[in-house]
Amino acid sequence: MRLHVKQVNRFFLLATAPFIGILLCLMISYQPIELKLDTRPYIPIESMQSQTNNINDQLMKAQSTVKSTLTTLHQTSELYQKTLETTNSIVLTTKSQVKMPEYIYNRRVISKLGTPYETVKTDRISIELFKVNPGVYRGYAMKVKLKDPSAMSMSLGKDTLGGSETTLQAVRRKGAIAGINAGGYADDRKRRYPLSTTVLNGQYLTGFEASYKNLAFVGMNSYGKLIGGKFYNQKELDKLKPKFGATFVPVLLQNGQKMPIPIKWQTSPKRAPRTIIGNYKDDQLLILVIDGYDENGGSGATLQEIQNKLLQLGVRNAYNLDGGGSSSLILNGRVINKPSDGALRSVPTHFLFFK
Question: Where does the Phosphodiester glycosidase domain lie (predicted)?
Answer without folding.
Answer: 175-354
